[in-house]
Amino acid sequence: MNRQAVFRVDASVEMGLGHLTRCLTLANALASSGVRSRFLMRSHAGGLAHLVEGSGHAVQLLPDPSAPAPETDDRAGPHAHWLPTTWRQDAEQTRSALAEIGPAEWLIVDHYALDARWERACRREGLRILAIDDLADRDHDCEMLLDQNLVLHMKTRYRDRVSAGCVQLLGPGYALLRPEFAAQRRLRAQRDGRIGRILICFGGSDPTNETAKALQAIGSLAMSRLAVDVVIGQTNPHADSVEALCRGVPNVELYRGANNIAELMRRADLSVGAGGVMSWERCCLGLPAVVVHIAANQIGTLAALADAGAVLYLGSAASVSAETLGHALRSLLDDSARAVALGKAAFALVDGEGSGRVCAMLGSRP
């Protein structure tokens, strides 16, 4: 019997690559148990289809409208603008695509602009729905919900958002990380708090160029002994200016679209970055981190990580200057015990086996 899952997900500079990355990770894990995956993405995300196809999965693009969608109740919600059309039209196109695809066991949706209305409209016999969410700001009509984050009231925040029968997979124990993170975790040596190598990475897009700010902060430390790895995504709109900055700071290596980020995290003694999927990647490798949030949906998780002693959280990127960031870095360079404590707290939160746990749950549903 051919087993198949269908993913509905998008990515862009504004959305970032995190949603697509975690869906790809889950699709790759499902493939190891014989489940084929097909991705439904809107045409505006078509430039990233190669990332999906390169992993061996099929992509089908949903056509965007020729004119912006009218402002109606169908577009309600703070992330409605992530769709160039209404949720209703998106659901119609998804239903048509599902009819062409044929039998599928799961429809997996990871999209802040889609909610229970869309999920109900896409239902058909034999198809179960997994909703991947971080926000708990809208209702879902799904058999299973996954929120891999650590937030306040984590166990109860979806109580009124899903049905009583919905299976909830909550917390970083279900973090969807690529297998290389678990592999690098096994190779990890115990850090002693001394900082000789810093990793800068703000995700796949970094629209406000926080990478440049971090480079300026490190440059202000005037510590020639520091080695710095800078990772930016292929879609980073500031790539040329970042490259120019890197040339002005000693011992800096720039990676564009690095495919060895897990290894770079294991080698680093400290990281500078934001929230999102990378929070759990850093935790898996026990990497101390100085972090800012670059989107409102990152605040709750970063605050919870700070409460757990797993990150040094400075607040909104917009309010954190290069000077402030430099002071924070200096504080950890001068306090090895604190750096060790951050890494140990992070390491205890994520073991890198979350994808396997989610796959097992998808396979265990009757």
UniProtKB/TrEMBL annotation:
Record-annotated Glycosyl transferase family 28 C-terminal domain positions = 201-344
Q: Binding of substrate: at which residues?
A: R178, E281
Q: Which residues form the active site?
A: H19
Q: Which GO terms describe its molecular function?
A: hexosyltransferase activity
Which InterPro entries does the entry link to? Answer: Glyco_trans_28_C (IPR007235), PseG (IPR020023)
Q: What is this protein called?
A: Glycosyl transferase family 28 C-terminal domain-containing protein
